[in-house]
User: What shape does this take?
Amino acid sequence: MTWNEALNLKFCFLNAENLFLMFDGVPSKLELPNLSESKWQRLSTSTYENKPLQKCLDLAKSLKEINADIVMLCEVGGFESLKNFNDLFLDETYSPALTEGNSNRNIDVGFLVRKNMDFYFDLQSNKHRSINYLYPHERDSLKTNYPINLAMPSAMSHKFSRDVAELRLFKKNIEKPFLLILLTHLKSRLDPEGIDPGGFERRQAELKTLIEIYKEISEKHVSTPMIVAGDFNGNATFSNPDEEFKPLYEATKLRDTLELGSVATENRSTFYQVKTTSKTEGRQIDFCFLNPSAAKLLREKSAYVYRYKDEFGLDFGVPMTLDAKLRLPSDHYPLVFDLEKVPTSDKPKSGS
Assistant: This one.
């Protein structure tokens, strides 16, 4: 087999918002146009409601328009859901890759990799890794030698809320990848137990452990292009990051693709909060960071946030009401970028 020594690759990251697709008997693609939403939902007896049919169709339409080679996804309801989405809505264009993580909502991070590409891929998980964190009440218990109720008490810590999935692209030797991707979904701001306001401490601990993983891989695979992507559930921009994300810039040279691509700040929002008392607030909480080796490969003006379109191909615009937001395929917007002339040779790379 003769493979190219360099590749142009398009990437897309998206929080797909509760992409559950589980069936008692998988329907055929021919059935979909004639199914009502109620019939669609009755195809499954799962405790998790399937993503609405129209949203699946609209999401697939958007991803087909983007036409990425590698799609990085959050909030996927397991491998079965990812495979069903690919088979039913994306014409089996991709190979799904997902390892079940730690989420108590069963929402995982996963990949869709275009079939028949000039490389192989391998997926590894960090779901069992300690994030070296205890909640305040657990720290107090530890001081008084009171037992801490953890799944693994000997570890004296927690794990990632979801995972940090590592995708390796390689040609011949799995230990010599030509591109590495870390995909995560950090702790949300929800704090139903009232033990970590805004999820700040847990999210900060997960971010620091993500950096540890990134640095360990960087030391092992010197100069290999790397992407660190995910829903960070906060402002991790270079100019004014939330407090928990400052270590990202203090300890690494990672940079956001939208920043590297000089995308205007007003065009970087990946999530819109619809408020009843004020105007809609747009924020960038989804990120695709590149290490220096990958940053050099970013195609000029290729980075952007995709905007969903209506049946006439027109931009839906910013959702100004909750109803408008609920009509979108996801409550997050896809983040897209290209890397060009990615070297795939096993020969040593120069630069960093």
In short: The CA atoms of residues 227 and 290 lie 5 Å apart. The mean pLDDT is 92.
